[in-house]
Every structure is written in C-alpha cells, then in structure tokens.
Specification:
The protein is mostly helical and about 210 residues long. The chain has twelve helices and no strands. α1 runs parallel beside α9, α3 packs across α4 and α3 packs across α9. The radius of gyration is 23 Å and the shape is globular. About 20% of the residues are buried.
C-alpha cells in the first residue's frame, strides 16, 4: 500500500468501528453518503466506492488530475438558475481570460492564484485541484468521522474541554443539551484564558 493510501486506510478502519462494521470495508459504501463524499472530494462516485472498499484509484498525473477537477466543478457546481457555468464565467471567477483558462485546462497546469480564486468562490478545500484521490477522500471523511464519534460518545466534547467531572454528572442529558453545555464551557474557558493572559504575573515574596 502506498504512503498516500496509509492515512485513508487508518481512517476507514476507524469508520468501520464507528459504524459497527470492523474489518468490513466493503460495506462502508452502504452506510455513508457516497454522492456527498464525491461532491466534496471532487472525485467520481465510482472511485469513492472503490476507495471506501479498500481498493485503489486509477493512476493519474498532476496535469490530468487538475483537468478532471475543473471538469468536475463544471458538472457538479451550478449557477443559481441551475445551469452550468460557462468557460467565460469560470475565467472571470478565476481572474483570467477564457483563452488562458482553455490553455491551462488542456495542459493541466494553472497558476496557483487562479485555482485559489476558483477554490474560494466554490467553497472548496485547500488542495482541491492537486490532492490525489486518497488524500481528497481522507479530507472529505474528516467531518463524517467527527460526527459519528460525537454520536457514539456525546460526552466527548466535554472531556476534551477538560470538564471531566461535569461530564460524569451529565448522563441524563440528551445530545443537544450536551452540545449546548459544551459550547458554553468552551466559551467560559476561552474567556478565562484571555483574562488570565492579560493579568500581570504575581510575584511571590519570600
């Protein structure tokens, strides 16, 4: 297994545990929103399914990957009226001309400035155009894992806030109440840290 697949493999193992399917990566596509993962990762649904099942993605060079991601945006991100963005519109968003956009679409080697403008406009993650398929899926799965962990252990955020004793007293609270309590606790801790940082250090006298 390549280095690129190793982090994803560890994450898939954790997903198997959280979904009650340890050691059964082939069943993960049954319980995850494959279409949403494809949309956020910028890779085809079929490739997402293959990677979730422990398989590998087709080999693709950087130029081909950039070209595929740009085409993916045109297919999946639509204008408010539901129509596809034209190359002229994408060029304006990227801050370049249609001719230049067509050129770097063919070569697969755009400037970082142009791709970053596209990425920000469409709310895409950093590295969207260049990350290989395992890396892209790994990033798209992060919020999924966090959500499942929160469901399996509603007290997790309280423990991470350092409120272990308070968390131990809250078994009767539902998930929404616990989330609200965790938000409040984090606000208090953050305010305390700011206040403490603004205080002059106290010098102890002998």
């Amino acid at each position: 297994m390549s280095d690129a697949h190793a982090p994803l493999a560890g994450l898939l193992q954790r997903l198997g545990e959280l979904t009650g399917r340890p050691g059964q990566p082939g069943r993960l596509p049954e319980v995850l929103d494959v279409a949403d993962l494809s949309y956020r990762a910028g890779i085809p649904v079929g490739v997402v399914v293959e990677l979730l099942a422990g398989g590998t993605a087709p080999e693709a060079g950087l130029a081909e990957r950039v070209r595929q991601r740009l085409d993916f945006i045109r297919e999946t991100r639509r204008r408010p009226d539901g129509k596809r963005y034209s190359l002229d519109e994408l060029a304006r968003i990227a801050g370049t001309s249609r001719q230049w956009l067509s050129e770097w679409r063919k070569s697969g080697m755009p400037s970082l400035e142009h791709t970053d403008r596209l990425r920000r406009f469409f709310g895409l993650p950093a590295g969207f155009f260049t990350a290989d398929e395992p890396e892209a899926l790994f990033e798209a799965l992060q919020p999924v894992v966090q959500s499942l962990e929160a469901e399996s252990d509603p007290l997790l955020r309280l423990r991470e806030s350092g409120l272990v004793r308070l968390a131990a007293r809250a078994p009767q609270m539902n998930a929404r109440q616990l989330a609200t309590l965790a938000d409040l606790a984090e606000m208090i801790i953050s305010a305390e840290n700011v206040e403490r940082a603004g205080r002059p250090e106290r010098v102890e006298r002998a």
